[in-house]
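User: quick one, fold this
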Amino acid sequence: MKLNLEDIADAWIADHDLPIEMIQHLEEGHREICSEPCGSPHIAPVHVCSELDLPQGSTWIEVAAALLDACLNPMKQTHLDEVRKHYLTNA
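Assistant:
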């Protein structure tokens, strides 16, 4: 089964938990994203942003980071902060 970010977000919204395979997929994507220049961001749907307490208009990259934070480090936003820093330094 090929994983995509929308399916992973929907799985988290349903259970507020993710299987390890999905978390690993998010981590791999996060490392790839933060090692490349910023491209054209794709905006996530409002319901996904709302469930993750992200502002409307957040990108799928921010969603992936917020999902990692929610699953691995709910008291901190380390992945989300890293993505936002990446945006600022590579925009």
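User: anything notable?
Assistant: The chain has a mean pLDDT of 85.
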